[in-house]
Amino acid sequence: MDIKEINEKIQQESAFVDLLTMELGKVIIGQKYMTERLLIGLLGNGHILLEGVPGLAKTLAIKSLASSIQAKFSRIQFTPDLLPADLIGTMIYSQKQEEFRVRKGPIFANFILADEINRAPAKVQSALLEAMQERQVTIGDSTFSLEEPFLVLATQNPIEQEGTYPLPEAQVDRFMLKVVIGYPSKEEEKNIIRQNIGLDFPKVSPIISPQQIIKARSMVREVYMDEKIEKYIVDIVFASRMPQDYNLGRLKQLISYGGSPRASINLALAAKAFAFIKRRGYVIPEDVRAICHDVMRHRVGLTYEAEAENVTSEHIINEILNTVEVP
Questions:
Q1: Between β-strands 47-51 and 175-180, what pairing exists: parallel, antiparallel or unpaired?
Q2: pLDDT tens digit sequence for 114-148
Q3: N or C: which end of the chain has fewer CB within 10 A?
Q4: Contacts of 238 (CB under 8 A, 6+ apart)
Q5: How far is the C-alpha of 35 from the C-alpha of 37, rounded, in Å?
Q6: Is 202 helix (H, G, I), strand (E, B) or coil?
Q7: Where in the chain is the domain with CATH 1.10.8.80?
Q8: Where in the chain is the domain with CATH 3.40.50.300?
Q9: How many Å apart are CA 175 and CA 301, to the nearest integer?
Q10: What is the C-alpha separation between 88 and 283, in angstroms, rounded?
Q11: Does the domain made of 3-191+208-214 have the CATH classification 4.10.520.10?
């Protein structure tokens, strides 16, 4: 297929994106950035880590997205006393049948909201790893496949440190995007107040089916990506690993580790999903730049020197984007 054909096909297939955004906009005022990133994760078949202070509609956004897709939704509140069995399920002895039977946990749904994921200890977080990567769960000696679409949306609160556990690097790397959410504007906040003190809170109607999402995912992979864009993605990721090769020697002391090959894969997939949302059949460098922070911010490790100098991963990604040659 030539680019023109792909472009026309994508324009037809992506028509539901506007409907979905409008439907979510009924309930979520402002937060266009967050809504767009949720759609990228959904279409790119990747999990999302949302970070923001309490009250920014993180949970509401995820619940609304599940409602608009007629999908099964599970909310798991992570606490320090949560056990892996509370998440994936366990074997229960049935006296009637005189045998052990599998009782499935809340992970068996299409959308999993892992609320305040950093409150649970490593044992529980490791129970999520298999589900996130292999899309399957092992209980006892049986392995169960999870339904598609399967999406883990985890939230973490950046301000409370008491009773929280930092997420292991291996788990953080499994998230396609880490989205940092800011406060709404004054005008948006006025509308939020009106909506919440009114008589009836708007409800989200189902717009599309899970089957349509699966079809859209395969369309996202058909979006054309030129070899120059592929090289650009590889250069960005390699600049985070070996900054000295890109005239960024000053960053060498600040980066303890750079992006893994998962960073390159997710950067390419997210750029294709972003192009799809913008109803284009081809990827341009601006797509890569638009989602680069979300894909890379949790994959760049900082040294003690960086923390001492108050340098964040955002600063490092900005430096890389400003230096690496754009095709």
A1: parallel
A2: 888 888 887 888 888 888 888 988 888 888 999 88
A3: N
A4: 245, 246, 258
A5: 5
A6: coil
A7: 223-323
A8: 3-191+208-214
A9: 15
A10: 38
A11: no
Q: Which residues pair with 60 in a beta bridge?
A: none
Question: Residue 289: which H helix or E strand, with range?
Answer: helix 285-296
- Which of the residues in the chain have pLDDT under 70? 1, 159-163
- pLDDT at res. 270: 95
Contacts of 227 (CB under 8 A, 6+ apart): none
CA 279 to chain centre: 20
**Spatial distance between the Cα atoms of 82 and 122, rounded to a whole number of angstroms:** 11
For 259, residues 6+ apart whose C-beta sits below 8 A from its C-beta are 237, 240, 241, 296, 299, 300
| Topology of domain 223-323, CATH | Helicase, Ruva Protein; domain 3 (1.10.8)
Residue indicated by tokens 């750079």: 258
Contact between 232 and 327 (Cβ < 8 Å)? yes
Structure tokens at 327: 């095709």
Instruction: Measure the CA angle with vertex 127, ends 43 and 145; round to 5°.
Output: 55
Residue pointed to by tokens 């894969």: 265
For 223-244, the pLDDT digits (tens) are: 999 999 999 999 999 999 999 9
pTM given for the model: 0.88
Both tokens assigned to 138: 């092992």
